[in-house]
Amino acid sequence: MDFKVGDIVEGKITTIxxxxxxxxxxxxKSGMVHISEVARNYVSDIKEHVKVNDVVKMKILSIxxxxxxxxxxxxxxxxxxxxxxxxxxxxKSAPQKQIIDSTYTWTPKKSEPASxxxxxxxxxxxxxxxxxxxxxKNPDANRTKRGSGVR
Length: 151
Description:
Strand content: 15-25%
Number of helices: 1
Radius of gyration: 26 Å
Order of helices and strands: EEEEEH
């Protein structure tokens, strides 16, 4: 069988470690499921979710050039259905006042990812603006203890 990224395969759990599980997926191939890919919720102990010799469905996430196969159990699960019957929480306290940041400007996301340089320039600009706001609001932040002239 020829395996491709995105395929759903059935495999048998062969080894459990603290960081994930290894599974035999057939044709002499095995892959690893990282602990973060075992279940949709937080996994503190893998042994609560799978056991050795369990047969589970897994999705192939990647196949490395060295032949290592990365698998996911949670991504092979059917999508969760949102229940309309879920009880709604009642408000017990008065609604809180929302604080609106007037300096925020919305910009639509680009369809292609920004280059590293563009992201760094945006980060630097944002950082400089925030720092100048802090300086303006807190004039004591501009003074340093050294060289203040007071002895």
